[in-house]
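Lecture 7 notes: from sequence to structure.
We start with the chain below.
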Amino acid sequence: MRKLLTIILFILTTQGNAQSPVFSDYIVQHYTEEEGLPNNIVNCSLKAKDGFLWFGTWYGLSRFDGTHFQNFTTAFYPTSDQPPRKIETLVEDATGNIWIKTVDWKLSVFFKKTESFEDIYDELKPYSRNLQIIKIQSDGHGHVMLLTKNKNLLLAFTTPNGKIHIQLIASSSGNINNFNDQLTHDLVTVKRGFASYVGRDYKIFVEPVPKGVPESVSYWT
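Predicted structure tokens for the same chain:
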């Protein structure tokens, strides 16, 4: 959904009581293409560990340093895949690289060191018959949860040397209607050292399990 036509940034400009802020302490600034955005349609934003604000727009990825926008809408290097458009979700992993999901369910990673993009396609083939990614979300531990269209749950991250690692956390096999790719029930799985949840409402959750918890157990509700 096209949620934002402009970016509204709230900047605290006084040293007033932090527990009792008042509206007079704030400046509201609107940013559009005239200020450097690649497009006025902004679907998502991310405050990264490097201090920059990142925005996913209809025409591509943009970085904001508080003053200027740098847009990553063209490939700077021959080794880079084409930058994605119609960006819907941004998630940063522990290495600081940004995972990008588009409106049309495509997945890519932006590597900050090389300022290059890599499409994620072949890496998904061992884990899902349907390579469309309908949701990405941080697991809170530096990994990125990936939910495929056929409701397999994957966990992904990038390594410091630029490699992409993906593993299957929960399989929907035997628990899905193959005609519409909908789960027949909510799925809870304890497997490969992780407890996971995939809901019929598309809610997802992954958490490492303590030692001693039985593995390879699936539940449904």
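Points to note: Residues 132-221 form one domain. The chain has no helices and 20 strands.
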